[in-house]
Amino acid sequence: MRVVPRAHNTYYLHPRQFILDYTQYGLHVTYHNEEQFIEDYGQILHQKGCRATEQLNAVIVKIYNEIDRRKNLGKAALERIAIIKSSYKPLHEDVYTLKEKYLSNEFLKLVRHCKATGSTEHTVKQFMNTEKAESVFSMQVFTMDFCKVFIEEMEHFEKFDFPKGRPNTMNNYGILLNELGFDENFMKIFRSNYIEPIAKLLYPECTGTSLDTHKAFIVKYKPEEDTSLSFHYDNAEVTLNINLGKDFQDGQLYFGKMRQHNTETQKYSIIKNKPTIGILHRGQHMHGALPISDGERYNLIIWMRSSKVRNELCPMCDRKPELLHCEGRHDGFTSSSYPDVKTVDVCSTS
Q1: Which residue ranges does the record assign to the Fe2OG dioxygenase domain (predicted)?
Q2: What is the spatial distance between Cα 7 and Cα 343, in angstroms, rounded to a whole number?
Q3: Is the Cβ–Cβ distance between 256 and 208 less than 8 Å?
Q4: Which of 81, 155, 177, 314 is spaced 20 to 30 A from 45 at the CA atom?
Q5: What is the DSSP string of 212-269?
Q6: Which helix or strand (DSSP H or E) is residue 319 part of?
Q7: Fold of the CATH domain 94-321
C-alpha cells in the first residue's frame, strides 16, 4: 500500500489487466500475483499451447515487464512531449485547433439536434446510420479535405527521429495525439462539445455524468506492417473510430457481442470502413479489423471515458479498481476530494 495526496481530478492507473499476445494465446487476463494468475489461467494457457514451465515463466516475465512499463507511462510520455514541443515544427499548424469547417454538414446537424430540447434516443437515430451490430452507428464526421491534411501532418511527424509512444500493445504503428499537442485545442473540445451530446442520448448507461477524459490516437494499416486488428474490446466507455483514408483494399471492421456475452461460436456483423466515416460504439463491444490487402489506411480512434462509471467498476476486469497514483493522465480513474482528508491509500502492484 502507498499513501498519496488526495486531490480532485487526480488521475490514476489501474495496471493489472492485460492482453496477452493475440497471435500466440489470445487472452485478456487480470494479474494480481503469480499464484492467482496460475490458478485462473494455467489451464486455459495449457490448452492454448503454453505447456512447458519455461513457456509459463516467459508469460509471467512479460506481464512483469508490462506492469513496469505502465507504471512509467506518465513519466515517459512527459519526456517525449517535452522533446516534441521543443523540436518539432508542424507541417499544418491549423489542424491542431478544431474548426467547424473540418466537420461535415451531416455531423454538425446531428450535434445540433442532440443539444436541442426534447431530443431522444429515437430522434437522434434519424440522423445516423444504424449498423447491423447492436447499438453501433455510423455517420460522416470529417470532410475529405481535412482528412487529407491531417494524414499529411501524421506522415510529416513520422519522418522525424523523435521518441514515439505507440497507442497500445496491439498496434506497432500509430501516434498518440496528446504527445503531438492535439488534446487541449482539438480533442478535448471535440469530445465534450460534439461527441458527448450524442453519446449521452445513445449510451446513457456508459456516460455517467460526463465523458470527462479520453485517449486519442492514430492507427495505421499497411502490408508488411500492421495489417489487421484482432478481436478485442476497448479500455473505454464509448469509442469513436474514424477512417481518415488513404487508398486501400479490404480491412472491414467486424463486431460480435458485448464482451460479457462473448462466445467462441458467434456471428459477426461486417461494417465497411469508408474514409471520413466514423463508427460509434460502446467500448465493451467486441470488435476487430479484417486484414488490409493493399494500400494504406489511417484511422483516428478516440477512447472516451467516464470516471463516474469506471470508478465504481473497472471496464476491463469487472472489479472495483485498485489504483496506482501516476504522473499525467492514464486510464481515466479519479480520486474524489474531501476537505478533511489529506491522504488516501491506493494499492500498488509492486
Answers
A1: 212-306
A2: 9
A3: no
A4: 314
A5: -EEEEEEEEE-TTS---EEEE--SSSEEEEEEEE-SEEE--EEEEEEGGG--SS---E
A6: none
A7: Jelly Rolls (2.60.120)
Domain ranges for the chain: 17-71, 94-321
**What pLDDT, in 10s, does the model give residues 186-197?**
999 999 999 999
Predicted model pTM: 0.82
For 129, the 3-state DSSP assignment is strand
Over the range 313-345, which residues count as b (16 or more CB within 10 Å of their CB) and which as e? Answer: ebbbbeeebbbbbbeebbbbbbbeeeeeeeebe
pLDDT tens-digit series, residues 111-164: 999 999 999 999 999 999 999 999 999 999 999 999 999 999 999 999 999 888
198-204: which pairs have CB atoms within 8 A and are 24 or more residues apart? 198/110, 198/111, 198/114, 198/124, 198/280, 199/238, 199/280, 199/304, 200/114, 201/114, 201/119, 201/120, 201/121, 201/124, 202/121, 202/124, 202/125, 202/135, 202/137, 202/280, 203/135, 203/237, 203/238, 203/282
